[in-house]
């Protein structure tokens, strides 16, 4: 058993933490890029919206759209990871299980 109190904690800057999480989960980058694109397009459409529509309704719809893009991207990444782990590259059976099947 590992004694967690004796582990050395290396301080990372926020930029290093961001790059580490981006390299570990590339769909996070896609989600963040989709969020930024949604925000830019939403800003443009906010300026061009009809003047009789309430801004609160537009902003609620924009928030839901941005969240859907990010959550959808992460969901697709999770599905891809599960398919890759369980279907495309299944781990070989453990030796104990293989020995039990041979008996």
UniProtKB/TrEMBL annotation:
**What Pfam families does this protein's entry cite?**
HIG_1_N (PF04588)
A Gene Ontology term for the protein's cellular component: mitochondrial membrane
**Residue ranges of domain HIG1 in the record:** 1-92
Compartments where found: Mitochondrion membrane
**InterPro entries in the record:** Hypoxia_induced_domain, RCF1
Any stretches that span the bilayer, and where are they? 27-46, 66-88
Q: What is its main location?
A: mitochondrion
The source's domain of life comes to Eukaryota
Keywords, alphabetical: Membrane, Mitochondrion, Transmembrane, Transmembrane helix
The Gene Ontology biological process annotation of the record reads: mitochondrial respirasome assembly
Put simply, this protein is called HIG1 domain-containing protein
Q: Which organism is it from?
A: Cotesia typhae
């Amino acid at each position: 058993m590992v004694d967690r109190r004796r582990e050395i904690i290396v301080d990372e800057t926020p930029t290093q933490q961001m790059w580490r999480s981006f390299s570990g989960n590339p769909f996070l980058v896609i989600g963040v890029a989709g969020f930024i694109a949604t925000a830019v397009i939403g800003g443009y459409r906010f300026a061009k919206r009809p003047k009789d529509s309430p801004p609160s309704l537009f902003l609620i719809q924009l928030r839901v759209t941005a969240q859907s893009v990010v959550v959808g991207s992460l969901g697709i990444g999770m599905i891809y990871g599960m398919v890759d782990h369980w279907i495309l590259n299944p781990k070989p059976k453990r030796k104990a299980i293989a020995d039990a099947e041979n008996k």
